[in-house]
Write a structure and sequence with these properties.
Chains A, B: This is Crp/Fnr family transcriptional regulator. Chains A, B: It comes from Orrella daihaiensis. Chains A, B: Keywords: DNA-binding, Transcription, Transcription regulation. Two copies of one chain form a homodimer. With about 220 residues, chain A is of the alpha+beta class. Chain A folds into two domains: about 140 residues, Jelly Rolls, CATH 2.60.120.10; about 70 residues, Orthogonal Bundle (Arc Repressor Mutant, subunit A). The first copy, chain A, is about 40% helix and about 25% strand. Chain A has eight helices and twelve strands. In chain A, α5 packs across α8. The longest helix of chain A has 27 residues. The interface between A and B is large, with 37 and 38 residues. Chain A binds a DNA duplex (30 and 30 nucleotides) through α7.
Amino acid sequence: MNMPKDVQHKLATHPLFDGMGRSQQNWLFTVGESISLAKHEYLFRRGEQSGRLYVLLSGHIKLSIPAERGQEKVLEFLSPGDVFGESALLTNHLAITDAQALGPSELLAFQGKDVMVAVTRVPSFAQQILTNLSQRVETLFRDMESTSLLSAAQRVAEYLLRQPRVGNQAKLPFHKRAIASKLGLQPETFSRSLQQLAADGLISVRGARVVIHDADKLQAMLV
Amino acid sequence: MNMPKDVQHKLATHPLFDGMGRSQQNWLFTVGESISLAKHEYLFRRGEQSGRLYVLLSGHIKLSIPAERGQEKVLEFLSPGDVFGESALLTNHLAITDAQALGPSELLAFQGKDVMVAVTRVPSFAQQILTNLSQRVETLFRDMESTSLLSAAQRVAEYLLRQPRVGNQAKLPFHKRAIASKLGLQPETFSRSLQQLAADGLISVRGARVVIHDADKLQAMLV
DNA sequence: CGAAGGCTTGAGACCGCTCAAGACCCGTGG
DNA sequence: CCACGGGTCTTGAGCGGTCTCAAGCCTTCG
């Protein structure tokens, strides 16, 4: 693989690879392909046959389905450690989402057939991927629960509570338009919901910075 | 395993098990547990730690999230061959859905730790589970696409087109209330959407029986 | 044949969407 | 460093698709 030594060293301690022997690691790094994406660059688009399974090493990737008039439905924001591109494991399946880098990103890519071989040669790799896919299914379940059972303001409150905070301040990690789509809302509705929470004294909003004044009341909204 | 010989024989030719040797099959059948469910019986409920991965052999299982006032959000209808209960693969995770049999059902269950061992001993089993989980993720993506991008009538049309037909007649396989929930609709809205399609001459509805008069126009609605 | 549950139909309300315009923010180049 | 410009976000007004609540009907099954 076209991979610098320092990257390999970092990978060796990554959860995905640290449960296996050195030779198995080397073999994976040989069949794997290192990929770098610039901000806004597409990894694949709906309808393409990417044929590869990806591991996100750094950066953020947005999985979305394109819709009319430049709109889109955001399905997932992926973070380092996430495994995706599972259509590669299904013979002759085309990608059903777009995959776009939201910032400079590094990935590791495996041909679908290599993955199936890797599963037999490196059991711990198979276990990691299984765990990861299971995690994805659970996350999707939770997302479906939220969008179908909660109101707009509730979804926004839930999302805010999930963001990492320093002190009581959180930062919206992506464009509000994209977050709104992920929550199943129009940008206008997302904005209005934030305003509503602010009017109720639960938060303050300035740009992408959100101050959480009353996390307990936000949590109580979700009942 | 407490499993009749004839069931074992049927399993031996099942896609999940036919890519492995006889001894590997026998081992799986030994660590696996055979489960039978009566109609309406629950396999597990939200909040429980089922700890097992299931393979549905016959019957149908409904995965849903309970909501207020006896309501529920149906996430998936499972059919024979489907693999589920992936929270078993995540240590200390509780089930986030209910799993209820919609009719008499037979399943094979594996303890989470046994699955992880099986992955190392029986690679083809690991591959099958990976394929199945990938399939599930894709299906969930499609469902999210439909519910967030299509109108009520469009979702109903899409659902009808996916049902198996004999001649031009399809049969709704579950209670309309449950199908409505799967599509993200209230029962009333589902009913009205069916009436609308009937009024437009695309279908006829009598109870659970739906006659598709014009599949092309139904398909054209989805654009 | 009767009862219970599921489905349909109607009327009305409301939440979120659409369309449109203006404000703000941030990155860029001078 | 500042001014500019494009893109993003906010705000307003009005609409409409879906939901809610409430009866009544139909089917099915005991």
